[in-house]
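User: ok so my PI wants both of these folded by tonight, can you help

Assistant: No problem, let's get them done. Here's the first:
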Amino acid sequence: MTIYLPDFKAIHFSREVFCPIVGCGARLVSMEDFENHYNSRHTPVCSVCSRVYPTSRLLSIHISEAHDSFFQAKVARGYDMYECLVEGCGLKFKSYNSRQYHLVDKHKFPTTFEFYKKARSSKKHRLKSQRKQAYHKEDASGLMEVENAAIDDLASAVSKLSTSYSTPSSISFGHRRKGMTFVPRSVRHGSGSNP
């Protein structure tokens, strides 16, 4: 005997639990396995950033606002694009902050609510990131010393170069020996310097 709950979760009174989602066909050993399967396979998850949302409507809003360049272009042109998150409200706003104010003021959301709550990295990840930054700073400072030394060497080499003006005797256009040859006036007149 199988009982289907309103949110598509199945309870089966034998050894196996079958997933009721059309096309899935998963057979699971326990209700705990089914819960894990359902949460990992059938909840609205963003395919770009892997954020999970309670409804497909909220997932759709997230995808538009966070990953859709057409949405961003419309916002830049001043269109009301930020939908109210409350189903049935239907209002749209010009900015994220305007919608935030509406949610707090009209729908009594907590003032701390954020649709795009930033995930806080673990302490281990933060320490690893700090070590990486420190390593790159040391690496960059050593590179700066090398670059400064190279610039000093280059400056001294350039200062030793002769700066006398020299005019080529002729300049050819096209293939060698064929084509027109340009002879500067200074060379044509035999002066060797600019007129």
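One down. Here's the second:
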Amino acid sequence: MSLTSSSSLDTIASRTDVFDNGSYPTALLRIKAESRFNNVNTIPPPKPLLIGTPSCLKGGEFPVLLMLHGYILSNNFYSQLIHHVASHGYVVIAPQLYSVAGPDSRDEIHATAAIIDWLSKGLKDVLPSNVQPNLNKLALSGHSRGGKVAFALALKKETTSPLKISALIGIDPVDGMGEGNQTPPPVLTHVPQSFDLNGMPILVIGSGLGEIKKNMLFPPCAPKGVNHENFYEESQNPAWYFVVKDYGHLDMLDDCTNGVRGISTYCFCKNGESRQPMRKFVGGVIVAFLNAYLQGDHTHLISIRDANLTIPVMFNKVHVRM
């Protein structure tokens, strides 16, 4: 694809299948916390960041998605998913919230609020000069425990977001070890549609294998009673819910995840045969959801609901409350 024809770029973007990479070339930026920058006026972020951004010659203004990693995972493990979403015209920011953590996620909630506060002060200075973030279109997402943190901040537990969150996404979110064993601060109330988010649209993605043990040595990674099903049940309208059959809790990660933690992502959770289909679906449905609620184009999201697209996975369940 030529980068010199901006008009053809826009035309291709409107036709691109959300489950394929989009028409924008992308770049991955690694921004250290408390770094010194060449520009003395640039404010460093409070946590290290992995940023996926469109990198076309035309540039432009793009909505922003903040993506929180799962328990003791690296933000680098989501690089293929970040590329996918960014290629459809979004700036994706994935912080490394911690290296080691206990059961309490309060520090992560406060850290996420601090990162959102930084967005309006420092984000534009670390992006390519022709890329402008549109913070009036800010979505918050999280995987696993990161999903719990995202919901907690949106629900104003512990602290509030310094910027308005326009859409909320839980990627196989988990709120503890099992029913009656939630980790602090608890998010789920087990009261249907109890999440009062003032009409904020919600997408919940669930894994069909997440609640199944891989073996007798380890508990399930997304136990019943504290998983995607409960997050959707407690979400108020509008809420979209997709449970993917035959794929596991970590199957949206990169194909190759390095190091001891990376190897462990294949050991602790029950997995599908390949990560690519689940990752393509997660990336595609996130793009379709953001297109609907940040850009006003529901075409792809409704087509996914109605199975009018070629979808890379099969569903256990699809449910929508408008």
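Residues 106-126 form the longest helix (21 residues). Residues 249 and 260 are 18 Å apart (CA to CA). Good luck tonight!
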